[in-house]
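INFO batch 0412 | record 1 of 1 | parsing
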Amino acid sequence: MKITCGQYQICNNAIVADSFFKKLKGLMFSDRMDGFDGMVFYGTNAIHTCFMNYKIDVVFFNRKNEIIKIYRGLKPWRHTQIVFKASRVLELANGQLPLEVKEGDHLDICTS
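INFO prediction complete | emitting tokens
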């Protein structure tokens, strides 16, 4: 899955946490994103970084792919607040989200 925001390439090979167990595990216990550069969670409006070993950038967005909230450099053993208007989350490696991308922007998601 490729994800862009305007002229900015965000992910070239994002994966979807599309099962209960993938959502449950997420990025926990990993040392890095290996073989992919982002993880998308549908039906989610809050996350935690318990049992993670590295910082991540987190993008909360809605069904229209509008960015609602951004957390940059979220450290291990933290949690986000519930982002009530969001229904999806994109987790990225720390620093991967361009600084020019901001709340209110629109994500373009290509699944093929």
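INFO post-check: The helical segments are 20-25.
INFO record closed
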